[in-house]
């Protein structure tokens, strides 16, 4: 995979495990960013992270279209029980916006952060709402970096977990979650056991068919 390719990173961990700190550091300097935020957790840090909080889906769409050739940092809060539909729609729009990148006309990548991914891309996903799955499977060539975040990896579509570039896993709640996360590593028992043993804010990183346990993130 070249540096030009978009990457899909899945970040798992229970509340307070460290995954939010990890994600916010990853997106700190992303020039073109869309955060899909069912929990409304980014409002309180919107100013700090220089995010525009979209009023509703129409506002989010118009803001994206108005800035398709420039930079943007947007957080969108989907309607309850419409997470899958709205994530699909926004993913499809990003794919359209990135056609210039796909054709080699520009080098403007985009980052999509999907919080509570088990709600926006459940297992099994709806066949009539393919947008997010298409972005995961075909977004690499379009320069779409995807960061999916969840406490419940076992409830995320296997299609998405089959196409992960990097797995980052903090402490999870129980064996089902550990097995669900390890699915991203071809259901490796060694990875599953390592995930089940995580504690004290350590995290596992799996990529290129290997994994390592990393120390807690520094506070600053």
What does this molecule look like?
The chain has 220 residues and is α/β, with parallel strands linked by helices. It has a single domain, classed as 3-Layer(aba) Sandwich (Rossmann fold). Helix content is 32%, strand content 20%. It has 9 helices and 9 strands. Strands 3-4-2-5-6-1-7-8-9 form a 9-stranded mixed β-sheet, sandwiched between helices. α2 packs parallel to α3 and α8 packs across α9. The radius of gyration is 17 Å and the shape is globular. The chain starts with 7 loop residues before the first strand and ends in a 6-residue tail after the last strand. The mean pLDDT is 96.
Secondary-structure class: alpha/beta
Quick one: overall form? globular
Query: What distance separates the N and C termini?
Result: 31 Å
CATH class: Alpha Beta
Spell the H/E element sequence.
EHEEHEHHEHHEHEHHEE
Layout of helices and strands:
Blueprint: E1 8-12, H1 19-27, E2 32-36, E3 52-53, H2 57-66, E4 72-76, H3 83-97, H4 99-102, E5 110-114, H5 117-120, H6 131-138, E6 144-150, H7 158-161, E7 166-169, H8 175-182, H9 189-196, E8 203-207, E9 210-214
Parallel strand pairs: 1-6, 1-7, 2-4, 2-5, 3-4, 5-6
Antiparallel strand pairs: 7-8, 8-9
Helix pairs in contact: 2-3, 3-6, 8-9
């Amino acid at each position: 995979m070249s540096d030009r390719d978009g990457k899909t990173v899945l970040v798992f961990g229970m509340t307070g495990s460290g995954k939010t700190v990890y994600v916010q550091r990853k997106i700190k300097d992303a020039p073109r960013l869309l955060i899909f935020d069912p929990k409304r957790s980014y409002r309180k840090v919107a100013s700090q992270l220089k995010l525009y909080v979209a009023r509703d889906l129409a506002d989010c769409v118009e803001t994206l279209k108005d800035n398709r050739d420039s930079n943007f940092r947007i957080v969108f809060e989907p309607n309850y029980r419409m997470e899958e539909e709205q994530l699909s729609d926004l993913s499809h729009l990003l794919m359209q916006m990135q056609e210039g990148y796909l054709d080699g006309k520009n080098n403007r990548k985009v980052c999509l952060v999907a919080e509570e991914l088990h709600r926006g891309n459940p297992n099994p996903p709806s066949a009539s709402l393919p947008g997010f799955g298409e972005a995961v499977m075909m977004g690499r060539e379009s320069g779409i970096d995807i960061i999916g975040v969840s406490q419940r990896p076992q409830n995320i579509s296997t299609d998405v977990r089959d196409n992960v570039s990097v797995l980052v896993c903090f402490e999870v709640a129980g064996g089902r979650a550990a097995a669900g996360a390890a699915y991203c590593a071809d259901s490796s028992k060694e990875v599953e056991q390592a995930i089940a043993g995580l504690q004290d804010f350590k995290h596992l990183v799996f990529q290129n068919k290997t994994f390592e346990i990393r120390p807690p993130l520094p506070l600053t």
